[in-house]
Amino acid sequence: MESKEVRRGYIWAAVLLIVGIAMGAFGAHALEGVLDAKGDESWGTAAHYALVMGAATLAATATGRTMGVGWVQTGVALFSGSIFLLVGARLNGWPIQAWVGPVTPIGGLLMIAGWILWLMGLRRPGRAKGS
Question: What is the pLDDT of residue 125?
Fold first, then answer.
């Protein structure tokens, strides 16, 4: 029987993969010709990270070692989500740059910290579970 942490890891990995696919397709089709080069690149980066981190956390969760995986998943949600919001804000003139902008690097730091924790969990068999 799989643990609650493993099940949660699988669910979040699937959510990130769905978001990455949907937002990538949305950016490529619905936003084609709407975004400038910078916006298109930013949108693509956010979708790319959601896809890569979704696949990576799926693989990490499959090992049964979940320490740090929740940090990675939270980090990519903040990282990609803030970029999607910022690009949307530029299109719509929403004044959110000041409070959403700093969220992006926080998300990146959480991803890095999460993978460090996951790696540490591999070295400590008794402390491998838990995010």
Answer: 64
The number of folded domains in the chain is 1
Taking residues 42-62, report their average pLDDT. 97
**For residue 94, which phi and psi values (nearest 5 degrees)?**
-75, 135
Side-chain half-sphere exposure of 94, counting CA atoms within 13 A: 13
Amino acid in the structure at residue 67? M
Eight-class DSSP state of 124: -
Q: Which domain holds residue 89?
A: 4-127
Band (pLDDT 50/70/90 cuts) for residue 60 is: very high
Distance, CA of 87 to CA of 64 (rounded, Å): 36
- Note whether 111 and 79 are within 8 A (CB): yes
